[in-house]
Batch of 4 targets.
Target 1
Amino acid sequence: MTLEQITNRITFYTSLGDDVYQSGDRLVAINNAYDKLHSIILDSQDEWDFDDSNNIELPIATTDLLADTGLYSIPETLYRLNKVEVNYGSGFVKALPLDLNENFLSEDEVLERANVSTPHYRIFGQTIQLYPTPTAEVSGGIKLYYDRAITHFTSDEYTAGTVKPGLDQLWHDYIAIQSSIDGAIKFNLNNLNSLELKLQDMEQRIRKYYGKKTTDRKTKLTNFIEDYE
């Protein structure tokens, strides 16, 4: 569905024209519904990782390693971090996540034990801390593989009405239904309950769909008998 079709569905579900359920409120509701749908997909997905198809570049952030610098900013659009790779000069290796509260080591102790063949990283706020601290500059020495936030629709896109949500068209109507629920709450509509039931049913189907989107991977059970003699 295009944005124009989505807003037409909102009108259909609510029987409210945009002179009542106005475009500014509809746009906010659409973007909020898009965010909620995105979180459902990420929570449900199997090995087939979701990304908003309206994006051009892959969700891989690269930045340079700097000598004697262990702290680096991470993208503001980062929703969930999946993997970190670091190249200290001899090729990329996977860095391991670190929580100082879990391993009961001080930061100095971590720095003493970390090495370039088994690097570690720590995330806090919008910053990543690398262990060990780089000793030389490496162009593009950090790669972050991540799930990113969806791109919200702008008021100009809403007015044009031609852009589509960057996900499977099967579930575009979820955005219209959730946005209609927002309108039903605001304007005290009688069909609020039926809209909520319709949304719940669709959410269950969305979770099932994205939870089994990859059918090529099969689980195989093998009998194994341990000989203790």
Target 2
Amino acid sequence: MGTEGQTEINYPNEKGHIKIDWGRQGGIIFAYIVILLGYYGIIANTMLYDIYGHWISFVDMDKTILFWTYTTYLTNFFLPALLLFGICFLLTYKEDIPQYGIKASIWVVPILIIEGFIFYALMFGFSMEPIYLKFMRIEGYLDIIILFALAISGAVCGMKLKQYTNKRKNI
């Protein structure tokens, strides 16, 4: 039918659907979009409510949750951490060469950090406070270490499961 990277359309008399083959890069881009929207989306949807369940404005929210996201994990039932772990797991599991998936997983962390700076600039304007919160406080470095640990552990688990399933297939 079609070659790789092209759109394949079935005609009305054929049973099927529209199929777009994005290849390897499309999967990585899709995973990045899910992480970028989902990670801070989960945090924002649970942290923008007060203890009585009333919505609060982002101006009144705690500004540190954009840079110390690990502080919200208990409130969010570890959903952002599980999302990051799961996406990094899938990025590595789907790759034939696991190093590509590990590399793509590691790049998720700087993108998340940059996204935190962008969200802060959009919500509160430009200032030096984000740099202070992320790079001059121990909590910022702890957040970076936790993000890298989640990404690398998800990627390594994906690699190990792929190796295990390949070994089981060959036996």
Target 3
Amino acid sequence: MARPHIVTLTTDFGLVDHFAGALRGVLLDVFPEVRIADITHAVQAYDVLDGALAISESYKYFPGGSVHMVVVDPGVGSERRPILATVGEHYFVAPDNGVLSLVYAQAESVLVREITSSHYFRQPVSSTFHGRDVFAPVAANLAKGVDPAKFGDEITDYVRFAAPTPKKSPDGSLRGIVLKIDRYGNLITNIRASDAPELLGNDPPPFRIVIGKSEITEIRSHYAQGAPGEVFAIVGSMGFFEISVNRGTAAKQLGIVKGTEVAIRMGGAAAAGSEIVTPTLLVRQRLELDLGTRTIVVQAWPPAHTDDDLTVFDTPTRTLWLSDLLFVGHTPVIDATITGFLAVMKNLPAIAADHYVPGHGRSDLPWPKPLQAQQRYFTVILNETRAAIRNRKTIQQATDEVGLSEAGNWAVFDLFHRRNVTSAYAELEWE
């Protein structure tokens, strides 16, 4: 494939410091004919999902053969691998932390290599600036025409995650989150137009979009169609529903932050003819349900993720449903107690399951191995929060500092981690 000598840059470096300039300098030093295109240097700091959105929404508009350098790297200097991904006709140089997940999800063909040929690196390699010393020289040599195979061997266990997807509730409403807030204050949700096409037809049903304390009942086809100061919904260029204000910022006007829940409620059709079935059995510890051809074991656990956690075990297939007691790849969430969550996790491996279904994420690791990452994450929060309390740090200081070493290991870390630290601090403060 002929290469157009283009290298694009997507980073969270910002433009105040020298970092972005250093990348450009190394690229030009290695390959003076390189054509550099800055996609953005304003990815939210440490936010791998934000970086994944930025590159996945932009790379496809560049010519085939372009090299895309993506440096959102909270795990820099750790054991995370540098990778080179060939996706269709495009090349990507990035840390192996999931920042290319949404690119992978759009592609028909993906080949990923671990970058191990250190003679291409700038020496000495800084433990805090792999963008300059590893990724930039590799990207420049790749744009120059070096064969991708020369940088390292193919791997198949590269990190990837699924972006948060909207869920249908029992009442028929569609529930999602604010995925991103752009510089205009538009609230970009994770609900695509294709998730609710009936709202965009000639005769849409009655609907309400509920976000925070606000309800939106108007959908516009373009921003200027709304009156100045009016809050409305619109399908943006990324294909997601957005909440916008004409010539204003919806984020400030509505007091909404990234991660806020959004619900689209459409008429009463979803509930027509339905019947509410109330619970008839209380699971105090363990309940066996004899279904004739199989026995289902329902087990209640002490407070952990919530104060009403249950697991379901199908004995014939030895399949264990863990609900939100297990998060794989997706940042775990504490709604009850971190110490209780860790205690429950010590007991879960005793269930002899051949198959398991996590509350979030994939199930391709053998049971109970996927518990290890979650246990490590909670242990880091537990130990560092206790240390923060001993050192008389405030809860705000703790949420700014605790557990940041885990940022590169989890999807949507920025949405849920501070909340977890806040919960842990409130619990551990009175030990």
Target 4
Amino acid sequence: MPPSTAAKLLLVHGLLFQSRGYTRGAVANAVPLFVPVNRALYALALGNFAVGTSAFTMAGLLNVLSADIGISVSAAGQLMTAYALAYALGSPFLTVATGKKARRWVVLFALALTLTGVLAMALAPNPAVLALARIVLACGAALFTPTAALIALTIAEPHRRVRALSLVIGGLTASQILGVPLGTFVGGALGWRWGVGLGAPVALAAMLMVWRSVPRDIPFHPPGLASFIGAFRDWRLCMVLALTLIATSGQNLVGVYVAPIITDYTGVGTRPLSVVLVMFGVAGLLGTLTGGLLTDRIGATRTLTVFLVLNIAGCLLIPLMGVSPWLATLVIMLWSFGAFGFNPAQQARVMARAPAALGGAAMSLNAAALYVGIGVGASAGGGLIAWRGTPVLAPTALVILVVGMAFLSFSERKFGRTGPGARP
């Protein structure tokens, strides 16, 4: 059987350990000291849940927030741009800057930044402070999520590492299914400040769990500055990363403004909207799982083509959402399924193209490209809403996604197809 996507990720990190003087045996031998492992993994998953809920609840409350603080929906969308760009720029820098610090202290510091950002958002007196709070929140997320993933890989027993990684990253997925819709519901009932503040008690609980359960001494060395420079010099890898930027820019013309789009087409209130967002999250989870399975079976390139086609189909159907709320729910679920299914296949493609020595840097840069794409999509979407309103978002996203498909076809013809376990 071909190696799974998660197994490839484990291979990348195993090679990274060896390049820094650690062996798999050394890590495995250290595991018995790291107890209890399951409790630590749940703590890290809860941290990701806090990060995801804090970051993306605002997307469901753009209408309420903009009305309350006296700005347009398009201007409120730029708060998502600030978050995305801060994440993209902060992730590589913070990874290198904290490389010599103990991993437990790094994730605690990251959660403290998240908690500070959430409280600052909830208490922000004006849009400028709100934007600054989003930047602080992004720095916490950019530091926490990749560090938590690598802690999971390190402390779990070798035969349980895939499940450990899935559990920790699953906290982000759970935030899309539970945290964001719940925050949207609370924000609609009590005000947007209560909705965005929902992440604060979760972040505090995660800090306490991390403090009590995550080991103090974890063998870990992140990629250094030289690895990032080497990744930028690899033009084949840069071509692969460019697809992340193109596709996520198009996807987030719709994704960031999904709540205003649903509201404008259907006229539903905040409470029904929260139900639709739950289904949006469920479809995203199914897309993520399906994307990973298809990548293992038919390869990254074909999987990317399938999900880009589904994403494009969703964009074509969005104008029909006004027919009924039920049809709107099905359309937005199709769109979400396609958008979320893209990510696992693209990550596998990045890992297949990256030289082993640059694996860690390549994954960090792929995350940065993803969040630059979110920022570009949010910024462009805000401008388009101010110009023509939400109906112009889906057609524009469709054009960009078609360009992404053409770019994928061109790059694969030039470099060769990326199948399961393929190397360039």
